[in-house]
Design brief:
The complex is a heterodimer. By secondary structure, chain A is mainly alpha-helical. Chain A contains 21 helices and five strands. In chain A, helix 10 runs antiparallel to helix 11, helix 11 runs antiparallel to helix 15 and helix 15 packs parallel to helix 17. Chain B is elongated and about 45 Å long. Chain B has five helices and no strands. By secondary structure, chain B is mainly α. The chains are: A mainly alpha, B mainly alpha.
């Protein structure tokens, strides 16, 4: 099964293009080569700036996550934006509109920069598939959106972009080797100054990383961001192999997460809220949890046989948890027997995905290739040795279980959110009792009592908590055995959905990214940065104002004027002082976090839809609603 | 099991639309009650049993939306519940409930054809489908 493209493929591609040797491969007339490289570098900077702008907005919109991390990286983002803007201004500030022109590159360096810029642009397009544009900004349109906009993923993204800028700086610096032609002297000098700005962007991010490191798990999470394309519904036929079933479970869980995310956002009057779907999801949750119990028990046995007693014990505990979760789901289903909603008989997509998950986990758990939701008693479970013949097979099976558990966690969340909405709107109903029935009741139902509503909410809240516990328990083991699904753990942590202390172990697994060796290059003078607004880029002042939600045309124009002034200064510095070199090499490395971090304007706490958190909180949270 | 048999007979004997709806309502309730008491010992048929209970709850709600369902019911609704007693073997229970659902489905389909109002007809058709779902989930002996 081929999944959707992921951001990591494109970022890796950009790294590959830029990580090669930085020698100056003169292939054509010197002036033409430099012209080509200048245009290519500018394209790269434009795309990198857009990423930095996205990060700036994301960090200004959120108020969750580690405050110090947000502070450090928000400031770094501003500095990176300023540096990129400075580089853009040097390269293109006195060009006519339409620069850089469409061109056919022949120079190898230019081709590499073009390829990196194209991959970055494609990556940003991929990221944007998780958002929709609105006059108030970007709004989430998938369950990945809160992950992408989270502080830790924003941090990782900026670090990636800055590192690529650092590599581009090295390549741009190679142009210095091309000195010797008087006609190209100006262009060569511009390239050198741009290189220094780019190196500064990298150095700033590295300094921030030394203070608040990017965890390897979060870089991995960033790389795992997929295009917002749902896998098609895929139910393998009878007799499917274990690996085929595992792949189908993972794909179905992805579909379940997406539909659950959409279902959780249903408004209180939405016709999508239906007791029929709640019942089906609760029932599927009970069944799938039973199947996960069987699978975890089998994998536990297999781990023990392979001599991994610790993992075996963890798996056995998780199996017990899954059994309890099944019971809680069942209780929820029983509570729902006693009530109904004004909309009935509709089975949501989320409920259908839940049923598919129950079917697929059952088909994996039982030996019969023909097992189905309508199978009777007496079917033997699949033998552990068949499920995971080798120790190396355990992570694959565990990943499928983890995906299923995580999917039901999201479905439980959606059910609870819908139940809360329905209770608030008086849409949970009970049949009219026979004594009161008669012509005076136009309908056969009346709103449920407070007690009945409380019972429904307690049941859905219980299912949510139990499902989260199971997903977390399996997630811990997934991290331990390095199952492919461990990225789900990072995603839950990134969005604040997981706060319990056990997650620290998962985080402890993460290695800090390598910030040790800054890319060479010199930092340009500090101070006001340039803007590349003629290139469609926002300057740092304007970007900052927009980032914190300022919409005043007057203020934005003032900020843009400041940006333009800075741009002029940069341009003059680049063209008027040709023999002046940048700061001595090594200045960028000397940048310390303390220099980088300064007081940042308080970010507006604009309540963004992006920040819809799925944190599970204290169970009696709904008491006040009743 | 005794109550399932009693309800089955009522469904079979129902002579009017109101009587069919009333008996079907009780049949769905009886199915839920019978299942809910036995879910913890059903092994590999857990999914079938649990989904059948959900379908029974949906079927009951659907029947309840039919305008011709008598109010108050013709008989005490609680009488349709499974009485405490010796637990039937799971295969036996599944067969009894599948049989009941089959009869309910047939009678509701007949009632739908004869119903005068669109609301009654729609409710009967939908509830018949839900009864068929229960039957399909629990008819383990059928090929």
């Amino acid at each position: 099964v081929t999944g959707p493209p992921v951001l990591g493929e494109l970022l890796s591609g950009a790294h590959r293009e830029l990580d090669g040797p930085a020698a100056w491969p003169q292939t054509a007339a010197l002036g033409r080569d430099i012209e080509e490289v200048t245009g290519s570098l500018l394209q790269f900077i434009i795309v990198a700036s857009r990423y930095a702008g996205d990060v700036s907005i994301a960090l200004s919109e959120t108020s969750h996550g580690d405050r110090q991390l947000r502070k450090v990286w928000a400031h770094a983002t501003t500095e990176v934006m300023a540096s990129l803007s400075g580089a853009a201004a040097v390269l293109g500030s006195d060009r006519a509109a339409g620069w850089p022109p469409e061109r056919q590159s022949g120079c190898g360096l230019s081709l590499r920069l073009d390829a990196a810029a194209n991959m970055l642009a494609a990556g940003r397009d991929l990221v944007q598939t998780h958002f929709t544009q609105d006059p108030s900004g970007r709004l989430p349109r998938s369950e990945w959106a809160p992950v992408i906009a989270s502080p830790v993923v924003s941090q990782a993204l900026l670090a990636e972009v800055a590192a690529l800028a650092g590599r581009a700086a090295v390549l741009a610096g190679a142009v210095q080797e091309a000195r010797g032609s008087a006609t190209a002297a100006v262009a060569v000098h511009r390239m050198g100054v741009a290189s220094q700005w780019l190196a500064r962007a990298d150095a700033v991010a590295r300094a921030a990383g030394r203070r608040e490191p990017v965890a390897a798990a979060n870089r991995e999470l960033l790389y795992a961001v997929p295009a917002s394309v749902l896998p098609g519904r895929h139910l393998p036929g009878k007799g499917a192999s274990v690996s085929e079933l595992c792949e189908a479970i993972i794909a179905t869980a992805e579909r379940a997460r997406r539909t659950a995310w959409a279902a959780a956002g249903a408004g209180r009057s939405s016709p999508a809220i239906s007791v029929t779907s709640w019942r089906r999801i609760a029932t599927a949750g009970a069944a799938a949890s039973q199947h996960c119990r069987l699978l975890l028990t089998a994998v536990s046995d297999r781990a023990a046989e392979h001599g991994d007693g610790r993992v075996s014990e963890q798996l056995a505990l998780a199996a017990q948890g899954a059994r309890m979760t099944s019971g809680v789901w069942l209780l929820s289903a029983r509570r729902l027997d006693a009530v109904t909603t004004d909309v009935r008989g509709r089975v949501s997509r989320a409920a259908m995905e839940a049923a598919d998950l129950a079917l697929l986990t059952g088909r994996l758990a039982y030996a019969s290739p023909e097992w189905s939701l309508a199978s009777g008693p007496g079917e033997p479970a699949r033998a552990a040795a068949v499920l995971a013949p080798e120790a190396a097979d355990i992570p694959g099976v565990l990943a499928a279980i983890h995906h299923a558990a995580d999917g039901f966690d999201r479905l439980a969340e959606a059910n609870h959110e819908q139940a809360r909405s329905a209770v608030r709107a008086g849409r949970v109903l009970v049949p009219v009792q026979p004594i009161g029935a008669g012509p005076g009741f136009p309908d056969r139902y009346v709103p449920a009592s407070t007690e009945r509503n409380r019972a429904v909410l307690l049941a859905s809240s219980g299912a949510r908590s139990a499902s989260a516990r199971t997903a977390d328990a399996v997630g811990d083991i997934a991290v331990e055995v390095r199952a492919q699904s461990r990225v789900l753990v990072a995603a839950r942590v990134a969005t604040g959905a997981r706060r319990r202390t056990r997650v620290r172990r998962a985080e402890a697994e993460a290695q800090a990214a390598d910030w040790a060796v800054p890319v060479g290059g010199a930092a340009p003078p500090t101070g006001s940065a340039a803007a590349g607004d003629s290139l469609g880029l926002l300057g740092p002042f304007e970007a900052r104002l927009r980032g914190i939600g300022v919409a005043s045309a007057r203020l934005l124009e003032r900020a843009a004027a400041l940006d333009r002034s800075g741009q002029r200064i940069i341009s003059e510095a680049a063209t008027g002082h040709m023999d002046r070199r940048g700061p001595p090499a090594g200045a960028a490395e000397a940048l310390d976090a303390e220099q980088v971090i300064s007081s940042r304007p308080a970010a507006a706490r604009r309540r963004a839809a992006v920040e819809r958190q799925h944190a599970f909180s204290a169970e009696p949270e709904f008491e006040a609603e009743l | 099991m005794t109550d399932i048999a009693v309800v089955r007979r009522r469904v079979e004997d129902a002579g009017s639309l109101a009587a069919v709806l009333d008996a079907a309502y009780d049949a769905f309730e009886a199915t839920m009650a019978a299942i809910r008491g036995h879910e913890d010992r059903v092994g590999s048929s857990f999914a079938a049993i649990a989904f059948a209970a959900a379908a029974a709850a949906d079927g009951r709600d659907t029947v309840a939306s039919a305008p011709s369902l008598p109010r108050p019911p013709i008989r005490d609704a609680d009488a349709g519940a499974e009485a405490a007693g010796a637990a039937p073997e799971i295969g036996e229970l599944g067969a009894a409930l599948a049989d009941l659902a089959g009869v309910v489905g047939v009678r509701l389909t007949e009632a739908a054809a004869a119903a005068a109002s669109a609301e009654d007809r729609a409710a009967c058709q939908m509830a018949a489908l839900q009864a068929e779902e229960i039957r399909a989930l629990l008819a383990w002996d059928e090929p």
